[in-house]
């Protein structure tokens, strides 16, 4: 989407919006002039036209009351969808303000229309609808897309911060407001402590997810991200939970369900289904959130407000003060225990990202009037706080973060520095992967063991679906095989043209613009470092660039490998194979039993899969591991052959292609007869073959066609001897 | 914790490894578990194949080179001390430790110089102590997407060597390399916090 030229809030969508509004208005017009009069008018006209007796048959009736509720709800949803689409089409807008801003505006707009036509808003929102239909999708989606590893690693900090912070905020705000209410000048004497406390709890619930989208631009570090994210997740639960224990329980249950189910779901279903599930969840939660915001906007414009300057101003002030207190105090304490403490800058960002959202509003709206005689006051106050935080803080948090960030990386880097920095990032990422992921919690290890032993056997089916990378790999292998047949020799690729000649060193004088453009090219085109946490953007699913990059890298590696094979080199790191014959031939990288091997392969691949936690790139099946092995294996055998002087690589190439031709049934016959190098290992390979489900791995292609090669003169005594 | 100490006893030469690398007992234990987990067939050492099984390395542009760096001098087997030795380059630098260090002892493996040396060897494949233009070009090729043309890459490689090269020999020696990175916070860039 970013690649498209700037698409401003396109004219057509505006027109559509306006048209919709017109219809909306028109239908309200009709409603205002009551049905009966409209009907009468129509009837009269009809009668006049047909000069029939006055008794008429109503052909066209407009029973607005009948369709009112679904009609209006649909209208709202339609309006919101159009607004959302327009918002995201616009290139810069999502980075400037959180989406909540837009939704509130839309809601306010709808509210204005409804209010303007004196129409009473239908009671769509009530407690049961909120808890049964609107909140669960949001919670489910949060849980599903939560990056589990960083969350659990930081769980201590998150619970400390979000949990204790929320409580601190709630009590702080509540108590302060109660004290304010005690002042007789403000006329708030009838609000008791309990009401204040409850109000405090619901107003302290932040909805930072709205801000996360803005954070995306600024690339906040992982720790910070997790804190805010965890806070978002827990806040919903806490504020909901303060109302009733049952809701807290159900909230926890939904979250737990989402978090645990994700792992198994993603491994069991195909890539497309996985995507479908993701999109569906996002859609549901998006719709819920939109409805809540719209309703909020509608409620803004109406008669059910009560304005009290003191209460509202102090609410706003206290919200900020208490949030600041809780942030700085709690982090001061927790920084003692953290290995990597949060800087003051980070804390400022966390403080400033305290944007309230629809959650607070819903809770305020659902306060029982019996317990809260001054409910309207609370609703108004909540609305003011939400508007203030969403609009003012939401819009300025982006620039703030960028400002804080920019101060660090202001200096221009030379090309050297850029290149080396990126190299080190890759290096670090690679070594981290070698280290694997350590948990500080024995519990997690135990769970993983349990998971492997029992749960996976039950919950994950045997023939796992393939990820797109795996399919790519297979396609490449097939292509290579076919290529070899057609050309007879291994073809060279576009990539790795080894630079044999060293160009003479001419020191060219490069202008600054050249240097600039070079730096640009480098910055834009260097591969991104693998992100350990997938950046969570609520409104978009993960972009596909990382997968494209991974494919490029895989293809390139394969090609360089092919190149080295072609030149007859042993592996770039290789020593003469010599004594390693035996190792290669016996194919030791798996257990001897084919059936056992499958399971084992699947096991350790899964193990790595859970380690690496990269959903789009995890290898779900064992075949890539196997095909890498086989490829290496075949490559390793080649140098053996050349070393034993049985032939030069090109000749070897002919041999292999010949056998391949036989298999593929082409008529071409090479001069040389197939030297079944691999004959000796056929038997072993055969036994491996049985267990294998996916056939077209490179090596297996090779072996399967060599089997029919009857007249085998074994040219390698070492091979034979091994057997 | 009791069970942990009994495991530590299983690590061969644990004391000498500790002295050499500076890892804590707990970290060594975790590394040992990881080593054993990577060694799927229980050979007692790691081969390149074992490291290649890590999928994330397969899609790392420098994956092959990183694996190579674990096998110095072209050896084919990686034992546990070797594994730990390489990883110790990435230990975070502890300032206190640095202050109390006995200057007569060899530099710890995770010093800035040693970290840079480790990075340097990723470029310098032929181990001649210099990054030639050709080697720079190879690294660039690995790290850059396919849209960049060969000419552009060559000119970038030229420029890179030119910027860092001070004695005009057309290659970047280790000292020139360190000089070009003197402003960079290597200690932070090349430290993995879990290896504390």
TrEMBL record, chain A:
Location of the Sodium/hydrogen exchanger regulatory region domain: 493-598
A Pfam family that the UniProt record links to this protein: Na_H_Exchanger
TM region(s), chain numbering: 101-117, 129-146, 158-181, 279-301, 307-333, 349-371, 377-401
Keywords for this protein: Antiport, Cell membrane, Ion transport, Membrane, Signal, Sodium, Sodium transport, Transmembrane, Transmembrane helix, Transport
Localisation per UniProt entry: Cell membrane
Biased composition, class Polar residues, residue ranges: 714-723
Gene Ontology biological process terms in this record: regulation of intracellular pH; sodium ion import across plasma membrane
Membrane topology: Multi-pass membrane protein
Signal peptide: 1-26
Ranges where the Cation/H+ exchanger transmembrane domain occurs: 77-240, 255-402
Family: Belongs to the monovalent cation:proton antiporter 1 (CPA1) transporter (TC 2.A.36) family.
Protein name: Sodium/hydrogen exchanger
Species of the source: Muntiacus reevesi (Reeves' muntjac)
Species lineage: Eukaryota, Metazoa, Chordata, Craniata, Vertebrata
Automatic annotation (TrEMBL), chain B:
Pfam families found in the cross-reference section: EF-hand_5, EF-hand_7
Subcellular location, principal: membrane
Keyword presence, Transport: yes
Cross-referenced InterPro entries: Calcineurin_B_homologous, EF-hand-dom_pair, EF_Hand_1_Ca_BS, EF_hand_dom
Keyword terms of this UniProt record: Calcium, Cell membrane, Cytoplasm, Lipoprotein, Membrane, Metal-binding, Myristate, Nucleus, Phosphoprotein, Protein transport, Repeat, Transport
Domain named EF-hand: residues: 111-146, 152-187
GO molecular function: calcium ion binding
CDD domains: EFh (cd00051)
Coiled coil: none
Biological processes annotated in GO: protein transport
Tree of life domain: Eukaryota
Cellular component aspect of the GO annotation: cytoplasm; nucleus; plasma membrane
Subcellular localization, as worded in the UniProt entry: Cell membrane; Cytoplasm; Nucleus
Family of the protein in this entry: Belongs to the calcineurin regulatory subunit family. CHP subfamily.
Name the record gives this protein: EF-hand domain-containing protein
Lineage, top ranks: Eukaryota, Metazoa, Chordata, Craniata, Vertebrata
């Amino acid at each position: 989407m970013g690649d498209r030229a700037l698409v401003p809030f396109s004219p057509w969508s505006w027109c559509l919006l306006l048209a919709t509004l017109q219809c909306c208005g028109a239908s309200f017009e009709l409603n205002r002039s009551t049905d009966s009069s409209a009907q009468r008018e129509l009837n009269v006209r009809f009668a006049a036209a047909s000069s029939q007796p006055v008794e008429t048959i109503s052909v066209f009736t407009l029973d607005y009351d009948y369709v009112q509720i679904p009609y209006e709800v649909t209208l709202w949803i339609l309006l919101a969808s159009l607004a959302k689409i327009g918002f995201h089409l616009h290139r810069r807008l999502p980075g400037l303000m959180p989406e909540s801003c837009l939704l509130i505006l839309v809601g306010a707009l709808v509210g204005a229309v409804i209010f303007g036509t004196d129409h009473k808003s239908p009671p769509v929102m009530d407690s049961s609808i909120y808890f049964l239909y609107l909140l669960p999708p949001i919670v489910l989606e949060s849980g599903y897309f939560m990056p589990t590893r960083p969350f659990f690693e930081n769980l201590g900090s998150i619970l400390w911060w979000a949990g204790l912070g929320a409580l601190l905020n709630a009590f702080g705000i509540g108590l302060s407001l109660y004290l304010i209410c005690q002042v007789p000048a403000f006329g708030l004497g009838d609000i008791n402590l309990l009401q204040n406390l409850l109000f405090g709890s619901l107003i302290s619930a932040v909805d930072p997810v709205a801000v996360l989208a803005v954070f995306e631009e600024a690339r906040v570090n992982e720790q910070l991200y997790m804190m805010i994210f965890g806070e978002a997740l827990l806040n919903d639960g806490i504020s909901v939970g303060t109302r009733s224990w049952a809701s807290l329980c159900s909230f926890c249950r939904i979250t737990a369900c989402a978090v645990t189910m994700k792992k198994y779901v993603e491994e069991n279903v195909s890539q497309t289904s996985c995507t479908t599930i993701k999109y569906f969840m996002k859609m549901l939660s998006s719709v819920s959130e939109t409805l809540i915001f719209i309703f909020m906007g509608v409620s803004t414009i109406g008669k059910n407000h009560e304005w009290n300057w003191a209460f509202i101003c102090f609410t706003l002030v206290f919200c900020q003060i208490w949030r600041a207190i809780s942030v700085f105090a709690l982090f001061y304490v927790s920084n003692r225990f953290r290995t990597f403490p949060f800087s003051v800058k980070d804390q400022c960002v966390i403080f400033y990202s305290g944007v309230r959202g629809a959650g607070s509003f819903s809770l305020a709206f659902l306060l029982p009037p019996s317990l809260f005689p001054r409910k309207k006051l609370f609703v108004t106050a909540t609305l003011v706080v939400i508007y203030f935080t969403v609009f003012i803080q939401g819009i300025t948090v982006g620039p703030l973060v960028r400002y804080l960030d920019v101060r660090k990386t202001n200096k221009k880097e030379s090309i050297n520095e850029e290149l080396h920095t990126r190299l080190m990032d890759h290096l670090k990422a690679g070594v981290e992967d070698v280290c694997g992921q350590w948990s500080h919690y024995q519990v997690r290890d135990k769970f993983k063991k349990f998971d492997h032993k029992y749960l996976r056997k039950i919950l994950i089916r045997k023939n796992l679906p393939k990820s797109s990378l795996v399919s790519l790999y297979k396609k490449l292998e097939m292509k290579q095989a076919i290529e070899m047949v057609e050309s007879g020799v291994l073809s060279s690729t576009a990539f790795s043209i080894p630079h044999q000649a060293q160009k003479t060193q001419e020191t060219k004088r490069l202008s600054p613009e050249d240097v600039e453009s070079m730096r640009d090219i480098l910055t834009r085109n260097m591969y991104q470092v693998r992100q350990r946490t997938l950046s969570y953007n609520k409104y978009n699913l993960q972009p596909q660039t990382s997968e494209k990059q991974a494919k490029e890298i895989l293809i390139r590696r394969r090609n360089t490998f092919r190149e080295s094979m072609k030149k007859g080199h042993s592996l770039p790191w290789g020593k003469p194979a010599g004594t390693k014959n035996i190792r290669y031939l016996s194919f030791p990288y798996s257990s001897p039993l084919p059936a056992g091997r499958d399971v084992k392969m699947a096991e350790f691949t899964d193990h790595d899969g859970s380690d690496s936690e990269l959903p789009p790139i995890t290898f779900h099946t064992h075949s890539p591991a196997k095909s890498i092995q086989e490829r290496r294996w075949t490559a390793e055998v080649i140098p053996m052959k050349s070393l034993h002087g049985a032939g030069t690589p090109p000749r070897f190439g002919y041999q292999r292609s010949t056998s391949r031709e036989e298999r593929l049934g082409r008529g071409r016959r090479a001069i040389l007869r197939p030297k079944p190098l691999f004959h000796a290992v056929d038997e072993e390979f055969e036994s491996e073959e049985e267990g294998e489900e996916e056939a077209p791995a490179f090596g297996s292609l090779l072996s399967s066609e060599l089997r029919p090669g009857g007249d085998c003169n074994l040219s390698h005594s070492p091979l034979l001897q091994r057997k | 914790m009791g069970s942990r100490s009994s495991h530590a006893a299983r690590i061969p030469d644990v004391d000498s490894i500790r002295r050499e690398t500076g890892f804590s007992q707990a970290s060594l234990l975790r590394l040992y578990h990881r080593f054993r987990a990577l060694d799927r067939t229980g050979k007692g050492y790691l081969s390149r194949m074992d490291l290649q099984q890590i999928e994330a390395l397969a899609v790392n542009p420098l994956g092959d080179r990183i694996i190579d760096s674990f096998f110095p001098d072209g050896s084919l087997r990686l034992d546990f001390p070797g594994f730990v030795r390489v990883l110790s380059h990435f230990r975070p630098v502890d300032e206190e430790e640095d202050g109390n260090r006995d200057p007569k002892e060899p530099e710890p493996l995770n010093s800035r110089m040693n970290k840079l040396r480790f990075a340097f060897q990723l470029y310098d494949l032929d181990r001649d102590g210099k990054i030639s233009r050709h080697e720079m070009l190879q690294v660039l090729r690995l790290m850059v997407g396919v849209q960049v043309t060969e000419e552009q890459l060559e000119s970038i490689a030229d420029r890179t060597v030119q910027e860092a090269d001070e004695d005009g020999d057309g290659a970047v020696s280790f000292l020139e390399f360190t000089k070009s990175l003197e402003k960079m916070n290597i200690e932070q860039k090349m430290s993995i916090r879990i290896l504390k």
